Amino acid sequence: MRIAMWSGPRNLSTAMMYSFGNRADCAVVDEPFYACYLARTGLEHPMRAEVMAAQSDDPETVVQSLIGPVPGGRAHFYQKHMCHHMVDGVPRDWMGAMRNVFLIRHPTRVIASYTEKHDALTLEGIGFVQQAQMFDEVAAAGGDPLVIDSHDIRANPEAMLRRLCEALGLEWDAGMLRWPSGGHPQDGAWAPHWYGAVHRSTGFAGAEGALPELAGAAAELAEAAMPFYRRLEAVKL
């Protein structure tokens, strides 16, 4: 099985990669289209040079790595993807070969977390619009997309991961609940900037507290993202 997990930034996506990466039967890959995205947008993200040096910026080369042999000969291939990386020139036709899952998180939480690491936020850059569009595309093609909320996973990791595995037709593995601290061999080159907290972790953090307070442009951005979040929230596991 090839699982494409689609999210935006600051959305439990790395912890989910670690969870699946701790299965003995599962290979993982970390944001394989990141260099393609940076090459096409020209954006100056943290550690841009390292990302460009570490990955191919040719979308077709990346696609072939996703639909070709599974690394290590594993039975399953978990692919961590960012929705906003799928810009013009990056094909989506290969998604039909995947089980597509959409990982959502409340926009207020995403924005509050993202601004701690990178202050150049736009609606396009946090992926909510693209996530809803891609969900619709997969559904229209008969791909049976799934939606899972990071808030629910943190509140009850085992129950939600069991539910996800059942929906995928994947055997449950209790190893998904814990992983070694210090990162994963497949971490992207950008990990030193973004992954500090998850590198210190050995499992999912506990339930989240109240929604953070936002003001000004950040609050306006959250309000603009809410309709797209709500659409997918309505069909989540």
List the helices and strands and how they pair.
Layout lengths: L1 E6 L5 H9 L4 E5 L3 H8 L6 H7 L4 H9 L8 E7 L16 E6 L2 H8 L8 H4 L1 H13 L5 E4 H6 L1 H12 L22 H4 L1 H5 L15 H18 L4
Parallel strand pairs: 1-3, 1-4, 2-3, 4-5
Q: How is this structure best described in words?
A:
This protein is α/β, with parallel strands linked by helices. The mean pLDDT is 95. Strands 2-3-1-4-5 form a five-stranded parallel β-sheet, with helices on both faces. The chain has helices at 13-21, 34-41, 48-54, 59-67, 107-114, 123-126, 128-140, 150-155, 157-168, 191-194, 196-200, 216-233, and strands at 2-7, 26-30, 76-82, 99-104, 146-149. It has a single domain (2-233), classed as Rossmann fold.
Number of strands: 5
The CATH architecture is 3-Layer(aba) Sandwich
Return the CATH topology: Rossmann fold
Sequence of secondary-structure elements: EHEHHHEEHHHEHHHHH
Q: In angstroms, what separates the terminal alpha carbons?
A: 20 Å
- Rg measurement, Å: 17 Å
Structural class: alpha/beta
Tally of individual domains: 1
CATH class category name: Alpha Beta
Can you give the mean pLDDT?
A: 95
Proportion in β-strands: 5-15%
Number of DSSP helices? 12
Query: What is the 3D form?
Result: globular
**Main sheet: strands, sense, barrel:** 5 strands, parallel
